[in-house]
Write a structure and sequence with these properties.
Shape: globular
Radius of gyration: 22 Å
Oligomer: single chain
Strand content: 25-35%
Number of helices: 11
Structural class: alpha+beta
Strand order of the largest sheet: 11-9-10-14-13-15-17-18-12
Largest sheet: 9 strands, mixed
Length: 479
């Protein structure tokens, strides 16, 4: 059967609630959480190979085990079992109604041999999007959806879709690994800390900030003709909102009242999603060649340059790089690594396509490193929080403000630090971890490489002709 004719058949749909009732209450959402409300579909696919597996005989016990362990882990990770309340009761502020209504659990099958995806190294196929459930932004939607799909002859996929308002990538991975521990009948080794009120502001504080997203020129021995956009406090100038195209004389950007602007893109049939595997050897070579301090910076610098080259961006066109930064250890006092929720802030770097491509890869690596260093501060995080707090209700609540950029932006998501290949439910580690779909062209989704060590996997989405170019140049170490 042709791949475009493959259909996932849903067998049963369950609702899984916490095994022990939890205290019903309304959970405060921080400004960082609220900024993630527009991002209601975050997904991941985990493929597991089970030799001698037969869907009729072996799949039902797997489903029952996963449902039972999910029920157990939800006792600790109970926000996933609640519902998003956009009206927020008397306060009017969005919150999570922790009511134990449960999460969606879908049992499904596909008439396709597991070997058919394995032999192609799990490169993205159109039917991957059917391996997860998609939510549509309704208040009564489950905040977490699990779909377990049995393939023919030796494997299954766990597709997970969650609402970003509940968790960032760090917290989500924490949940997934804890769920796997429950499946193996082990106690949860790292309990989550529910303490979102650490970011709560009183009404007086919310009225104070005048904050801009302002571009600051970066000039170092390695960087020129580049800017980094950060949130800065300026009490002398009142905040105003206008259309996205406006750029003020002082280098700041004025924002639109829409938190997300949908730009026209090519038809989905002309787009391709591909995963690239950077071996530990290639990562080390890129680090040495670029002078990067981390594997992430080295791979990101190579990816940014190659994607813009593949897209044939005009020389004078601005190009952007955006990275979310985990701030758990950057606030005072530091938050525990097990803080459950969203604790990231974003920064944006800008240069021109000419600078990015004509300068050595050292330039791109230095600019990304400067971006991380500049935005990974408590001041930047607090300014991001204050920006959202002071504009709740305006519709302008995305402090990443990716809509301020043109189409030529690389946005990173997930991280090679998230140990997704350790999510073992008792049938072994996943043989592949993939995205079900990507929304933006040029997005950079990172996972650790399945080879282990310091290898990195990167998934992206481009028009087909541009993807063909990227495949030819991405793994070539610059001279």
């Amino acid at each position: 059967m042709a791949e475009d004719q493959m259909k996932v058949q849903v067998s049963r749909v369950y609702t899984v609630a916490p095994a022990i009732p939890t205290a019903k209450h309304s959970m405060f959402l921080s400004a960082i959480d609220i900024s993630k409300i527009p991002y209601n579909n975050v997904d991941i696919l985990l493929f597991y190979k089970t030799p001698d597996f037969t869907a009729d005989k072996d799949f039902p016990p797997i489903v029952e085990k996963l449902k039972a362990s999910l029920s157990l882990v939800l006792v600790d990770f109970y926000p996933f079992a609640g519902r998003l309340d956009m009206k927020g009761g008397e306060s009017g502020r969005p919150q999570i109604d922790c009511n134990d209504e449960g999460v969606e659990f879908v049992e499904a099958t596909i008439d396709m041999p597991f070997q058919d995806v394995e032999i192609h190294d799990f490169q993205h196929k159109r039917f991957f999007e059917e391996l997860v459930q998609t939510r549509h932004g309704n208040d009564q939607d489950s905040l977490l959806s699990i779909q377990v799909t049995a393939f023919q002859g030796g494997g299954f996929c766990i597709g997970v879709n969650f609402h970003h308002v509940v968790a960032d990538g760090n917290s989500f991975t924490h949940f997934m690994r804890s769920w796997a521990e429950c499946s193996r009948e082990l106690p949860i080794s790292r309990s989550p800390h529910h303490m979102r009120t650490v970011f709560q502001r009183d009404s007086e504080d919310r009225a104070k900030p005048n904050i801009y997203l302002r571009g600051e020129e970066v000039v170092t021995d390695l960087i020129k003709e580049a800017q980094i956009f950060k949130f800065v406090r300026d009490n002398s100038v009142p905040i105003k909102y206008s259309e996205i195209s406006a750029r003020t004389g002082d280098g700041s950007l004025e924002t639109t009242n829409n938190s997300i602007i949908q730009k026209p893109v090519e038809e989905e049939t002309n787009l391709e999603i591909s995963t690239f595997h950077f071996t530990e050897k290639v990562v080390q070579a890129l680090k040495e060649r670029s002078g990067a301090s981390t594997s992430f910076v080295a791979v990101s610098a190579q990816f940014w340059r190659c994607v813009m080259k593949a897209r044939q961006v005009a020389e004078n066109e601005p190009v952007y790089f955006r990275v979310p930064i985990d701030c758990r250890g950057r606030v005072k006092p530091p938050l525990p690594p097990t803080y459950f929720g969203n604790c990231v802030c974003s920064g944006i770097a800008e240069t021109t396509a000419k600078q990015l491509l004509e300068q050595d890869i050292v330039f791109a690596a230095a600019l990304i490193q400067q971006l991380i260093s500049s935005c990974a501060s408590e001041v930047h995080l607090n300014n991001s929080v204050d920006f959202v707090e002071s504009h709740l209700g305006s519709g302008n609540i995305d402090p990443a403000l990716g809509n301020l950029c043109n189409d030529y932006i690389v946005v990173t998501t997930m991280s090679p630090k998230f140990r997704v290949y350790e999510i073992d439910h008792g049938w072994g580690r996943p043989v592949s971890v993939q995205a079900a779909f990507l929304t933006e062209i040029g997005r950079m989704m990172l996972f650790p490489g399945k080879e282990g060590g310091k290898s990195i996997a990167v998934t992206t989405k481009l028009p087909r002709h541009q993807m063909e170019t990227l495949k030819q140049i991405l793994m070539v170490i610059p001279d």
